[in-house]
Amino acid sequence: MKTVNDFKEYQIIDMADGMKLEIWNDLKLLRPDPQIIWNEKSNENLWNDIDATYNRSNTGGGCWNIKNNNIPSSWQIHYQDMTFNLKLMGFKHTGLFPEQAYNWNLIREKIRNANRKVKVLNLFAYTGAASIAALMENADVVHVDASRGMIDWAKENVKSNNLEDRNIRFLVDDVVKFVKREIRRGNKYDIILMDPPSFGRGANKEVWSIEKDLFNLVELCTELLSDNPILFLINSYSTGLSKTILENILYLTVNKKVKGFISSDELGIEMKNSKLLLPCGIYVRWERNN
C-alpha cells in the first residue's frame, strides 16, 4: 500500500464502527467508511468536540450534522506548496481525497524529469487536485468534468494557488464524447489521468458504467497519446474492479501502442499514532521505459 507521511494538515486520528475521525486543518470531522468493520476505538477521548458528523440515511444518501456553528462554509488545506479549497458536500465528501497526495507527487516528478513542455489530459477531473499538481510544474493542462460545479471549484483552486497565468483549459463535457472529438482534432497528450466513478451521468445525462465503459475509454485514449508519452494513470474506488483487471486493461491498450512498465497498488492513509491503515482505492499506471 502506498501512503504519504507529510500531509500535516490532514490526519485520521481514530477509526471504529464504520466511521473515520479526521482532522482537516483544525476542523474535526466524522465520516462513514465501509472498510472500517471493527468496533474498537483506539482513544475514546478523541471522539469529543466533533465539529461535524455525516450521518447516512436508511433510504440512501445522508446529511451533515453540524455541531460547531462557527464552521465555515469553505476553508483551505495545504499540502506541500499546494492549496485546496474544501466544503462539506451533500454526499459526505469535502472536495479532496488526501490519499491522492501520492499520485500528486508522482505527477510532479514525471513532469519535472521530462525536461520539456508536457501536455496533460485530466479526465473525470473533479475539483482539480491533479491539475494543480501538473500546473505547479508548468505543464499545459486540459481539465474535463461533466459537472459545472466541480469545474467552478477547480477554478477556485487554481486561483488560490496563483496559477491563473498557467495554461489550463476547463471543459464541462461528457468524457467519452470529448475524447472522440480530440481524436478527430488530432490533439495529443504526454500524460493522461483519469479517476472514473463507478457510475455517473454526463453533461447531457449520458450514462457511465465503469464495468461497461472503462475499457473502451482507455482504448480510445491511446489514440491521444503523443509520440513520446510519459504516464497513463487510472484511479479506481470501485470495489468491483481489482488491480489485476485494471492492469490487464493497460496491457491490452496503452502497452500495445507503446511498450512500458505497468504497476498497481492500493492507496491508503495511516492513522496517527497507530499501525492501522485505511485502504482508499487503487491505482494502476503505465510508465514509459527509460
Query: Mean of the pLDDT scores?
Result: 94
User: By helix and strand content, what is the structural category?
Assistant: alpha/beta
Number of helices: 7
The major sheet is characterized as: 7 strands, mixed
Backbone CA Rg: 19 Å
What is the β-strand count?
A: 16
Helical proportion, percent range: 10-25%
How widely separated are the two ends?
24 Å
User: What is the spatial order of strands in the main beta sheet?
Assistant: 10-9-8-11-14-16-15
Q: Which geometry do the CA atoms define?
A: globular
Beta-strand content bin: 25-35%
User: Secondary-structure element order, as H and E?
Assistant: EEEEEEEHEHEHEHEEEHEHHEE
**Residue windows where pLDDT falls under 50 for at least 5 positions:** none
Report on this model:
There is one protein chain. The chain has 290 residues and is of the alpha/beta class. The chain has helices at residues 101-114, 129-136, 148-160, 175-185, 210-221, 243-252, 254-257, and strands at 10-16, 19-24, 27-32, 52-56, 62-66, 75-79, 82-86, 119-123, 140-145, 168-172, 191-194, 199-201, 207-209, 231-236, 260-270, 277-288. Strands 10-9-8-11-14-16-15 form a 7-stranded mixed beta sheet, sandwiched between helices. It has a 5-stranded mixed beta sheet with strand order 1-2-3-4-5, with no helix packed on it. Helix 1 packs parallel to helix 2. The chain starts with 9 loop residues before the first strand and ends with a strand.
